[in-house]
């Protein structure tokens, strides 16, 4: 399960948007994990061709760190658009090329090439001109289509125990132990994870862990195809594909927006406690993509889907009770989501503290740079939000700081000893008491 916090970080990143082809609602939350290692892409149109319209959605689930996932979140669309096949509108080939090219770009960065993190990628490209959607998936994040309220898989989880994955791993001189690649990695395809791709005699698709995605192409039928869900395994560990589709339909019947529904699904999946099986303690990211007909906006789409009169089997509250059946929830539904719901006063206090902290942080950083600069030490920005401190006087400053800390500790110890010496003893107190009596 990995390291977890004593309380979950429940601040959510939420977005929504729409265009002529799709509309979306997104939510992401760190949860119980020590840091947030997910990233995502929501791009309503990545085509520069007036005749084409291409919506592109991605969820990246990082492991072993956030560096590779963050790189993908910022660069994946650009890398896809650079591929020759993309310019020729050969989207299947372009998607495969983009995954391989991303690994190659990572290896060009000396820091990222030696980074031990990796990430899964589940991506959806929707073409208006070709009337298709293509899912390219590498890892155990998942993309699901709601087709007449029935969940249809657009991707399959890449686990080391699958026969096809196991065969490649063993052929590449790897092994599977405790359902993990080399006893370590719980998934068998990913971007990054270069320690599992170190055999120079093997092609990318032959490595122990490969970045090469599986592709599923689906011709869109707007009378049947309703929406698509992309999510990391933090969601799918808690919900089946059909459970998730049903919850979206339930939210739509309640009049919620796609953004509100995605937020509510994360509430459903966030564990109320760290006790138990460990499900619900992961980072969570989910994107719900509405498939819009010609000249249809999100409001009209919403009404059209609700008019199908599908009745989902569970509410958000009942689904949460079912997922965490071992937990004793309050009978009142209003308290089922206590772990992820903030009181308004808590939210205000948090935002005030965050603003003060941000101002203080910016001021402190400026002061630090000025102090260091005057001593001949520079701070140089690097890639991936990393900064490097260097300069000939650096070692002297560190030694001075260490010496200052030691001196301060010694002074505090001396003060404590003096205070103890000045404190009256029991004998002194008795003598003073007798004098007063006399």
From TrEMBL:
Q: Which CDD domains match?
A: PP2Cc
Instruction: Give the main EC class.
Output: hydrolase
Which residue stretches does the UniProt record annotate as biased composition, category Basic and acidic residues? 423-438
Naturally occurring in which organism (per UniProt): Kluyveromyces lactis (strain ATCC 8585 / CBS 2359 / DSM 70799 / NBRC 1267 / NRRL Y-1140 / WM37)
Pfam families from the UniProt entry: PP2C
Provide the protein name: protein-serine/threonine phosphatase
Q: Which reaction does it catalyse?
A: O-phospho-L-threonyl-[protein] + H2O = L-threonyl-[protein] + phosphate
Q: Which GO terms describe its molecular function?
A: metal ion binding; protein serine/threonine phosphatase activity
Return the annotated region ranges for Disordered: 404-438
Output the superkingdom of the source species. Answer: Eukaryota
The family line of this record is: Belongs to the PP2C family.
């Amino acid at each position: 399960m990995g390291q977890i916090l004593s309380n979950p970080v429940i601040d959510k990143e939420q977005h929504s948007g729409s265009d002529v082809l799709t509309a979306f609602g997104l939510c992401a939350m760190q949860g119980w994990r020590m840091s947030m290692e997910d990233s995502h892409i929501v791009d309503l149109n990545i085509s520069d061709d007036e005749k084409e319209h291409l919506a592109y959605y991605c969820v990246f689930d990082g492991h072993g760190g956030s560096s590779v996932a963050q790189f993908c979140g910022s660069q994946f669309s650009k890398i896809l658009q650079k591929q020759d096949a993309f310019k020729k509108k050969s989207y299947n080939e372009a998607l495969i090329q983009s995954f391989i090219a991303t690994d190659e770009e990572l290896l060009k960065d000396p820091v990222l090439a030696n980074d031990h993190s990796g990430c899964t990628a589940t991506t959806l490209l929707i073409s208006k001109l070709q009337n298709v959607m293509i899912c390219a998936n590498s890892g155990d994040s998942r993309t699901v289509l709601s087709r007449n309220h029935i969940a249809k898989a657009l991707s399959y989880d890449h686990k080391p125990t699958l026969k096809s994955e196991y065969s490649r791993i063993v052929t590449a001189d790897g092994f599977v132990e405790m359902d993990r690649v080399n006893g370590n990695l719980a998934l068998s395809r990913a971007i990054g994870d270069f320690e599992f791709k170190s055999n120079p005699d093997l092609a990318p698709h032959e490595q122990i862990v490969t970045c090469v995605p599986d592709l599923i192409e689906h011709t869109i039928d707007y009378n049947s195809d309703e929406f698509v869900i992309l999510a990391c395994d933090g969601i799918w560990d808690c919900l089946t594909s059909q459970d998730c589709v049903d919850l979206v339909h339930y939210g739509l019947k309640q009049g919620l927006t796609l953004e509100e529904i995605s937020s509510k699904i994360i509430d459903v999946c966030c564990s109320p406690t760290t006790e138990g099986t460990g499900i619900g303690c992961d980072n969570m990211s989910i994107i719900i993509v509405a498939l819009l007909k010609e000249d249809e906006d999100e409001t009209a789409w919403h009404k059209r889907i609700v008019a199908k009169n599908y009745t989902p089997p569970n509410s958000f509250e009942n689904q949460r009770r079912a997922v965490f059946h071992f937990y004793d929830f309050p009978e009142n539904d209003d308290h089922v989501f206590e772990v992820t719901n903030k009181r308004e006063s808590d939210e205000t206090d948090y935002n005030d503290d965050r603003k003060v902290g941000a101002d203080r942080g910016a001021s402190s950083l400026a002061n630090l740079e000025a102090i260091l600069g005057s001593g001949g030490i520079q701070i140089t920005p690097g890639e991936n939000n990393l900064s490097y401190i260097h300069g000939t006087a650096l070692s002297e400053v560190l030694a001075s700081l260490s010496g200052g800390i030691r001196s301060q500790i010694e002074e505090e110890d001396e003060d404590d000893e003096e205070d103890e010496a000045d404190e009256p003893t029991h004998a002194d107190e008795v003598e003073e008491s007798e004098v007063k009596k006399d």
